[in-house]
Amino acid sequence: MTLLGMSIPTVTRVALPLAVDKTLSYRVPPSLAEACAPGCRVLVPLGKGRKVGVVVGLAREPRQDLREILNVLDPRPLLDEELLEFTRWVAEYYFAPWGQVLQAALPLALRLKVKRHLLLLPPGREVLEHPFSNPPARVRRVLDRLASSGNLSEAQMKRRLPEAGRRLLEDLAERGWIAIVEETRIPSHRAVGEPWVSARAGGASHATFGPRQNRALELLRGAADAIRLKELLKASGVTRNSIRTMAQKGAVALEWRASGTAWGKTLAPSIESALEPTAAQDEALAAVSAALARGGFQPFLLEGVTGSGKTEVYLRAAEAVRARGQATLYLVPEIGLTPLLAGRLEARFGSGMTILHSGLPDRERWEALRGIREGKPWLVLGTRSAVFAPLPRLGLIVVDEEQDPSYYQAESPRYHARDAALVRAQRLGIVAVLGSATPSLEAVAACRRGKFRRLVLPSRVRDRPLPDVALVDMREEFRATGSQSLLSRELAGAIQRLKDAGDQGLLLLNRRGYATFLLCRSCGTTLKCSSCSIALTYHRTTNRLLCHYCNRSRRPPSACPDCKSQHLHLGGAGTQRVEETVRSLDPSLRIGRMDRDAVKGKGHSRLLEQFVHRELDLLVGTQMLAKGHDFPGVTLVGVLSADALLSLPDFRAGERTYQLLTQVAGRAGRGDRPGRVIIQAFATDHPALVAAATHRPEVFYERELRLRRIMAYPPWVALLQVRVESREAGRAERHASRLAGRLRALARRRFEVLGPSPSPLSRLKGVYRWQILLKGPSRRALADGVREVLKAPEDSQGLYRIVVEPDPRSLL
Ligand SMILES: [Zn+2]
Ligand SMILES: [Zn+2]
After folding, report:
1. What is the dihedral sign for C-alpha 386, 389, 391, 395?
2. pLDDT digits (tens, 9 = 90+) for 165-176
3. Which residues surround ligand 1, an ion (CB under 5 A)?
4. Among 504, 560, 568, 601, which one is least packed by beta carbons within 10 Å?
5. Strand partners, 559
C-alpha cells in the first residue's frame, strides 16, 4: 500500500505465551501479508531465539524499526474472532497475560520444539586425525563420537556421553570444530490414528484358537462397534501377534481409524440407558428447549439430588441442539469422570463426539482440537480448559457439578471455567445449563436475584429412596468405649457385614498419607516442612515424611530435632492408616485405596473399573471418591473426621464440607438396594453436617447465605485478593503495606481494603506470602483500583512478585 508515494508496511500485534502482560508488534513482509490473519499462529524472533505466537491484530503503521515475522503457520486461522475476543476478555478479567490464556486454549499449538543437531566440521576432523594435536580427553571423546556416528542430535550425544554438556559443545562450535544446527518443529496438521478391531461373521471357528483368543472374540461379538486394539489387548490378554493371526484367518477385521474424532469403546457397563423421563425431567427439558427455540442468552441452574437424572436432561438438550445444526460443549470437573461418561454417550449416540482434556496424549489432543475447529463434532466433552474449545457453531454450554473447585485454575493463567463459560454463553447469546446436587452459594444467590432460572429435580429416578444417614458423635464414642479408635462401633460393624451381604462400600477420609503429623511428646514440636509453614505427613508406603504443598520429603528422624528426645508420636490419621485398620478388621475384604499417592496416571480409571466389576469390596480414599461415579453395588458410605474440613481458615469451609458430604453420601444405594451412610465427627451439630444428614439443604443454605451477608462475603460482595510474595519475609510485608496504603487512598467509599496480613499459608516453597483483600459491591471498581495502583510498573528486580486474583476461590 502506498500513501503519498511512501510504502506503509503492515504491522501485526502478536500475543506470545510469556509471563509478560503485553502483546508485541512485528512487521509483516509483503510475501506473508496475505496469509497473516488474526487467529493464525506465526513464528517470530524474540531476543536471540524464536517463539510461536498468535496474531491478535493488524494495523498499517509507518514503522520501520520493528522485526519481521518469520512465518505464518496456519493456512486458516486456528481461532475465530469470537474465541479471540473471549480469550482477551478472560486475560483482562483475571489479570493474566493474553498469550498465556491462548496457550491454555491451544495447549500444544504454541509449543516450539527446537532440536539441535551436531556436525563434525573439517577442522574438527583434523584435530582428531593430526598426530601432533593433543586435545583434552573429553574433547577427543566428543569428536570421536561424531566421527563414528555422523550426524547426532544434542540429546543423543548427551545420552551417550553425559559429560558433553551445552558449555563444552558451544566451546567446540566457537573453535570451529563442530557446528550446531537448530531445527524447529511445530505441531502440524498431520493425521494420527490407531488400529481398531471388529469380529467378522463366518470366520474361523472357536476350535482353531486358544482361550485368550476366544475371549477376545467373545468381547468383539458382544460389542456394537469395533474396539480399539489397545483396549482389546488389555481386556482379553491376547498379544498383538495373535490378533494378526486371527485377522489372517478371517475371524477379525483390523481397520485404521483417525483418533480425536471418537473415543475408544470403554468396556464399562452402560448403567442407565435412555429411560422414559420423569415428570420433573420433562419439565426441566421443556424450559431449556423453549429457551433454545427463543434464542439468546439464558442461564439455568439445574438442581437435583445425586441420582435424580441431571445427565439425561443435558443429553436430551444436546440432542435438541444437534437437531438445530449446532454443537454442545459439556464440561465436567474431572478427567476421571470422562471414561465412564464417554462410554455411556458412545453407547447411546454412536459417533460425532470429541473428548478434550489435558490427560490426552499430545497428538490426540491436537487432532481433537483440529477436528473441533473444523466443526466435526456435535458434542465436546471436556474438563476445565475445554471452555476454550474452538467450536464454530456453539449452541449450548453445560457445566456439570458447577460447584466443583476443579473448575478453578489456581496457576497462571488463573480463571474459573464455570464463570468463563457463562461469559462465553452471554457473548454468544446462547443457553447455559449449570447443574449440581449441591449448588454453590453464587448460583443459589443468582437464582434468587432472578439472574438464573432454577430448575429442580426433586427425587431420584425410579423413586429410589435417599440413603439413610447416621451422624456418629466421636466424643460420645470415646466416652462410651474409652478408646480412640478410628472407626466407631457402628461403622466397624457395617464394614464387617459388607462381605456377607455381597455389597460394596466407600470410606472417605480427606487426608492422604498414614499420619498427618509427627509430634515430639517431650517438647511439643511438630515437624514442619523446611520451606512451607505446614506440618509434614508421614507416608508408610515410602517410609518418608512428605510436604503436601511442595512435595519435599525426608526420612523420619529418630530423635526430635529440637530437644533430642526419642518420644516421637505419629498423630492424625490418613488414608493409608484407615486402609490398614480396615484390613485388620476383616482380612478377607478386597480393599482399594484411591488418593493421589495410589493412583497416578491411568491407575485411577483402572481402580474404578475394578470396583465397577466387583473385583473390590471397599474403596478407601480422599474426596476423589465423592465425584459423580455411579456404583450400583455400593450400599455403605462411611465418612471419617467429617469436621476436619470445617476447621480450614476459609469462608467457604462450611460450603465445601456440606457439598463433599452430600456428594459422597449420594454414592450410596444407587442400585436396587437401599444405601446407608455413617458420618463420624466431633461437631455433629454443625449445620453443614446436619443438612447433609437430614437431606434438608435449606438448613444449610439459609444460614450460610445469612452468615455471608453479615460477614460481607461472596455472593453478596465481590472479592479480589492481592498477594505479595518474596523470599525475604520483610520485603513481602513492606511492599504489601505500601500497596495497601495506596489502595486505601484510592478506595474512598467504593471498596474496603483489608490487611495486609500474612496469608494463612504464610510460607510456601520458601516464599513468604502477604495478602491484601479488597471487598466491595462492584467487581469493576475493585479491578480498576488495582489496575490504577499497579499502573506505573516498578522494577521488582525479581525480589518480589504480585499476584492478583479476582474472585479468589480460597484465601489460603
Ligand atoms: Zn522435642
Ligand atoms: Zn513444603
Report:
1. positive
2. 888 988 898 888
3. 520, 522-523, 525, 560, 562-563, 565
4. 601
5. none
